[in-house]
Design brief:
Helix 1 (about 10-25) crosses helix 9 and helix 5 runs parallel beside helix 6 (about 210-220). It is built from nine helices and 23 strands. The chain has two domains: about 5-115 and about 255-340, 3-Layer(bba) Sandwich (FAD/NAD(P)-binding domain); about 125-250, 3-Layer(bba) Sandwich (FAD/NAD(P)-binding domain). It has helices spanning about 10-25, 65-70, 125, 135-145, 165-180, 210-220, 310-330, 365-380, 390-395; strands spanning about 5-10, 35-40, 45, 60-65, 75-85, 90-95, 100-105, 105-110, 115, 155-160, 190-195, 220-225, 230, 235-240, 245, 250, 255, 275, 290, 295, 340-345, 350-355, 360-365. About 45% of the residues are buried.
């Protein structure tokens, strides 16, 4: 009877989980087809999500169907609607709209995250975002159409809400994106609104002076200690009483884990992430592992946890896939650790900033850091070639990930 390792999601966590599971079976000499690895996702495509703040987001996707095939992984086009851990099966709505159920012996949940959408007046109707590729494309289309609107301050103003990683990168890139549409001499105003008293609150004090210097250079105005209370077709209202007239409002204020985490027994944090053991097994559910943005996983013994980022999703995926396969084979699992942590933040035309460690010590900035960021965005985070030996070698869970 064939056993099955089922992986939900084909993002950074899911793709690498599949390749790592295949690698583990190869190393164990288990290539007789008695264990199937299957991935369920809407399409066999890796969306390069960390780049959706850039121009031309529609091109930021990499096909992975051939890669999964050469690795011996079955791809199932569809969406998981229900996880029944008691029965070890899932319900799937296929690409053709048909419903089916699929059993599993080990499950890796890597269904990712989505942008938090609070019940803020006008948010859904009037704000854009760069969370998913189709949503980023909608923003891109909107920006391209600005040239056909009457020239005024509102048309030329963009408000970016949320001064975290995505918000900073989006705001820093936005002046040049808008000028590419309106003309190099256009009087473009970009306002970055952050409710905390400091920019990039989760990034710490280390890179903050560099970030502020870069934003000023790029022509981004920063509003701190204020939140958006209303969005409408003409702009936003802030909690400090300020009104900003703008034809473009981009919401970047934080992700939440996939709703599928609610169908898995276990503890969740405020963002919906499942608490995991050191081998990424969901606490209290022996046959389910979590990877990427759905996992609340310790990176070390100092109290740090993986962030909801591409960098951590890649490492989490490798470890979760490897451990799911090893657990099914009766072999020891390995603890997930990512004690070396770096961040590389794109700061638009000014450059970028690279930090190391959880205290985020600045080690590179400006043009040199920008060259590294471009290498990360255009090469390092893309899938490996569809060559079995290279793909499986790249899925080694001991491999250091810098992204």
């Amino acid at each position: 009877m064939t056993q099955r390792i089922l992986i939900i999601g084909a993002g950074f966590g899911g793709m690498w989980a599949a390749l790592a599971a295949a690698r583990a079976l190869d190393l164990a000499g288990k290539t007789d087809g008695s264990i199937e690895i299957a991935v369920v996702a809407p399409e066999a495509t890796l969306g390069i999500r960390p780049r959706y703040y850039e121009a031309d987001p529609g091109s930021m996707a990499a096909p992975i169907g051939e890669l999964l095939e050469v690795a011996g992984v079955r791809f199932i086009a569809g969406k998981v609607e229900r996880i029944r851990t008691g029965l070890r099966e899932v319900d799937i709505i296929g690409a053709d709209g048909r419903s089916s159920s699929l059993g599993y012996d080990r499950l890796v949940l890597a269904s990712g995250s989505s942008l938090a959408n609070p019940n803020l007046p006008g948010l859904k109707a009037h704000a854009f975002n760069v969370d998913q590729r189709d949503e980023a494309v909608i923003l891109e289309t909107h920006l391209r159409l600005l040239a056909g609107r009457p020239a005024d301050a509102s048309r030329n103003t963009v408000v970016v809400v949320g001064g975290g990683f995505t918000g900073i990168e989006t705001a820093a890139d936005m002046p040049s994106r808008v000028r590419a549409v309106l003309g190099a001499q256009a009087d473009v105003r970009v306002v970055l609104v952050e409710r905390a008293e400091q920019i990039g609150p989760e990034l710490g004090a280390g890179p903050r002076p560099v970030i502020l210097q870069a934003l000023e250079h790029d022509g981004v105005v920063v509003r701190l200690g204020a939140s958006v209370t209303q969005v409408d077709e003409g702009g936003v209202n802030l909690s400090n009483g300020e009104r900003i007239a703008a034809s473009t409002v981009v919401w970047t204020a934080g992700p939440v884990a996939s709703a599928l985490t609610q169908q898995v027994p276990g503890r969740r944090d405020a963002l919906g992430r499942l608490h995991t053991a050191t081998d990424l097994r969901v606490d209290g559910v022996e046959h389910v592992f979590a990877a990427g943005d759905v996992a609340l996983a310790k990176t070390d013994d100092l109290g740090h946890h993986a962030s909801m980022s591409c960098q951590h999703a890649m490492s989490l995926g490798r470890s979760a896939g490897h451990n799911a396969a090893c657990d099914l084979l009766g072999q020891p699992t390995r603890p997930y650790r990512q004690e070396k942590y770096v961040t590389c933040l794109d700061l638009g035309p000014w450059g970028a900033v690279l930090t190391e460690g959880w205290d985020r010590k600045v080690v590179l900035q400006g043009v040199e850091a920008k060259q590294l960021k471009q290498q990360i965005n255009s090469v390092w985070i893309y899938p490996p070639p569809a060559i079995r030996a290279e793909a499986l070698a790249a899925a080694d869970p001991a491999r250091l990930v810098v992204a």
